[in-house]
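Fold it.
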Amino acid sequence: MKTLSKNDVLVPADVPGNMKDEYTKNFLAITHNTGRLMLFAGDQKIEHLNDDFYGSTKLGPIPADCNDPEHLFKIAGKAKVGVLAAQFGLISKYGLDYKKAPYLVKLNSKTHLVGNEQKDPLSEIIWTVDDVVEMKKNSGLNILGVGYTIYSGSEFEGVMMREAAQVVNKAHKHGLIVVLWMYPRGKAVGSKHDELTGHMVAGAAGVGACLGTDFVKVNYPKEEGKKSEEIFKEAIGAAGRTGVITSGGSSKDPKSFLQDTWNQLHVSGAVGNATGRNIHQKALDEAVRMANAVFALTIEGKSVDEAFKIYEGK
């Protein structure tokens, strides 16, 4: 894996001259000097309520430890991750006990209780970039960036795009990295938003690029009779200089998940991944090993077999 120097980092034009070094430092830190991002997604406490933290999945019961929000921070404190993405409130409650962990603050969120058939999705900003900058300054926490979700295709997409654009610009003025979650969703998209075409995902990635984000997080496309890793290449091209990372989705068999992740990186050309449930829906030791395995694939350039051995503890 190529190691980047500060001269290799593309600093956006909206980063002020006195913040270019801060932006470069944060970019190299969040990508471990590779330009690739391994994002540990811990924002589902609002997005999915308690569905992902209590009960069971198709792989079996969710360990009891997962119900405690601190489980996310214990994992991030022990494992290799690029950054832990979580809401401002959780980071403010637990971050001081895990000061070495790298953080990305999610600025908007919504629950899934209001379905698309009732109302198109709208997720407005809850905290501001200024709130994040102030907490970082006062706490000394290792906050490297911020994140925001846009539901393209919603009748309210204009509200979210406007907020996201301001988030990107304000964050860059403070040298912070930005990840936009770009999810086509709403009546115009239809009910099968988890089975998106490569063309629709590419459109969402392109919107993120137009808003100036550093990374765009998208769902992996699915089209019957076509290989996802091939049709996903359209999104990589559409994003241009914006890095595309993929959502990990629901928990899968570990070896299959690692293979899918490798395909997304090495066949499609993604620059990273956002893995949540496939890590945190495990007991602490197993979760740490899985995070380390995903990190090995993403940042260290390991093969699937090598990463799986890390997961197995070998």
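Residues 14 and 87 are 25 Å apart (CA to CA).
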